[in-house]
Design goal:
The chain is an all-alpha fold and 198 residues long. Among the domains are: 63 residues, no CATH class; 51 residues, no CATH class. It is 57% helix and 0% strand.
């Protein structure tokens, strides 16, 4: 719509609803001096600004992360202008989408549980780099075999709560299980050959 036509309609005291019905875009109205906040209050959606008005200006005008998700904006776009992970999460952006753009550290700081991070592919080495303890990894569902790949001493794994049976199922030798400090009775109960547990 031409600037002259918009000016003519505005001089006739048409409302934003009238202008909208006549095909005047949200971006055109912003260029004519209407605030984003005013247009949002008058029913314009974030989708109607898509690609025309900077995301930061829309956020400042009161649009939420949920508004952007509903309009089809990628989480990475919002993250790049300062929207926090917790807001993206509350807006309903799925974890797997955030994982494509954000580090495990950012997701962890944003409030995602270890169980959720595990479900979207966080590895033991990644989480250990974040300072996650062996016992917290166990609580999150990581099996002993997953911790063995980073050479954690058997005693520390036993201290984290892994049982003799988990050691056996994880492929640990009897000697490794003994180094963890299990008794002969615990080793035999876990299925290690009783003759070798003494």
């Amino acid at each position: 719509m031409s600037q002259e036509k918009i000016a003519e309609m505005l001089s006739q005291r048409m409302t934003t609803a009238d202008l909208r019905a006549l095909g005047c875009s949200a971006a055109e109205l912003v260029r004519r001096g209407f605030s984003v906040a005013y247009l949002r209050l008058n029913g314009y959606t974030a989708f109607e600004f898509l690609g025309e008005v900077p995301v930061k200006k829309l956020l400042d005008g009161g649009y939420s992360a949920r508004d952007f998700r509903e309009a089809g904006y990628a989480a990475a776009h919002l993250w790049s202008v300062g929207v926090k992970v917790a807001e993206l999460r509350a807006a309903g952006y799925p974890e797997y989408e955030l994982r494509r753009y954000l580090s495990m550290q950012v997701l962890r700081d944003g409030g995602y549980s270890l169980e959720t991070l595990r479900a979207i592919g966080a590895t033991v080495p990644q989480l250990r780099e974040l300072g996650v303890s062996n016992s917290d990894l166990r609580k999150a569902g990581y099996v002993l075999r997953e911790l063995l790949v980073i050479d954690i001493p058997p005693k520390l794994l036993a201290d984290a709560g892994y049982t003799a049976e988990e050691f056996r199922r994880g492929g640990c030798s009897l000697d490794e299980a003994k180094l963890a400090g299990f008794t002969a009775e615990q080793l035999a109960s876990a299925g290690y050959p009783s003759a070798d547990t003494a």
